[in-house]
């Protein structure tokens, strides 16, 4: 099948290549492509007046007209911080629908998520740049009990797609994936969303952490418990706060900054059923 690609306003031919069925077909205005390679749609990639473009088509046409406005559009006009907040709000709405506690925003996690999103341009992987979320956070001295990460990419964005539509597409895409749903609906306490955009592509990263430990039990008067607030792999100090309920049952002694050799001392003043919560504050 012969397919021709032109600029809608002036009829000028477009150059690039078509990706379809695992094959690449070069386009100089037009290209002859066997129909068997077009059954599942195709992608047209090229450059116009110094602007790279990528468009996906679900079915073939003998002539494809693309407006100059679309060809020259890039993501520089997008408000990336707005997209981040819209994704964050969408996650919390989803959690609320499921009867879960809202997750809290962390600008520190968001900064790392933005760095990760920039790495996704070269390698769309949880290990982009050779570092997963666990390593990125530990290298920056952030202590956490558990961490999860979602990533998302929109390629070949069109000018008609604004910040709200981008955020909605991202959250809805994560909802349809079991693994991504799990991250959004887990017991994480804090998260950050980072967005990176270049030309017509947008990359979004969610990093979520659990930043508390809860010890709940029946305690006996006279007991003394020593709780290790950070694990042996953490090479640093984590700023912590410890609280107990009911507070009349406990006496607490702990350092403001805890390393792997430090402990939280819990003395039980009277027998009760209660809980001790260690929170990590540096997120």
UniProtKB/TrEMBL annotation:
CDD domains, per the entry: CAP_bacterial
Domain of life, source organism: Archaea
A Pfam family annotated for this UniProt entry: CAP
InterPro entries to which the protein is assigned, alphabetical: CAP_dom, CAP_sf
Protein name as it appears in the record: Cysteine-rich secretory protein family
Organism: Geoglobus ahangari
SCP domain mapped to chain residues: 91-203
């Amino acid at each position: 099948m012969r397919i021709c690609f032109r600029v809608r306003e002036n009829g000028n031919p477009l150059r690039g290549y078509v990706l379809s069925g695992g094959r690449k077909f070069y386009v100089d205005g037009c290209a002859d492509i066997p129909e068997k390679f077009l059954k599942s749609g195709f992608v047209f990639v090229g450059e116009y007046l110094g602007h790279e473009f990528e468009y996906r088509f679900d079915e073939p046409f003998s002539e494809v007209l693309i407006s100059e406005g679309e060809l020259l559009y890039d993501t520089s006009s997008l408000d990336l911080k707005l997209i981040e907040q819209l994704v964050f709000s969408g996650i919390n709405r989803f959690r609320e629908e499921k009867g879960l506690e809202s997750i809290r925003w962390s600008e520190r996690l968001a900064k790392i998520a933005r760095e990760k999103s920039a790495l996704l341009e070269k390698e769309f992987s949880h290990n982009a740049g050779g570092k997963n979320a666990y390593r990125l956070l530990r290298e920056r001295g952030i202590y956490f009990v558990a961490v999860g990460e979602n990533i998302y990419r929109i390629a070949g964005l069109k000018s008609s797609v604004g910040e709200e539509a981008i955020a909605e597409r991202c959250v809805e895409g994560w909802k349809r994936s079991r693994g991504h749903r799990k991250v959004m609906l887990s017991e994480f306490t804090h998260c950050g969303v980072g967005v990176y955009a270049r030309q017509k592509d947008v990359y979004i990263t969610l990093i979520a952490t659990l930043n508390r430990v809860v010890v709940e039990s029946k305690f006996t008067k006279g007991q003394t418990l020593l709780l290790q607030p950070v694990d042996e792999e953490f090479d640093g100090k984590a700023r912590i706060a410890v609280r107990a309920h009911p507070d009349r049952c406990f006496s607490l002694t702990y350092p403001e900054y805890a390393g792997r050799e430090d402990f939280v001392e819990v003395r039980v003043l009277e027998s009760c059923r209660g809980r001790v919560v260690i929170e990590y504050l540096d997120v």
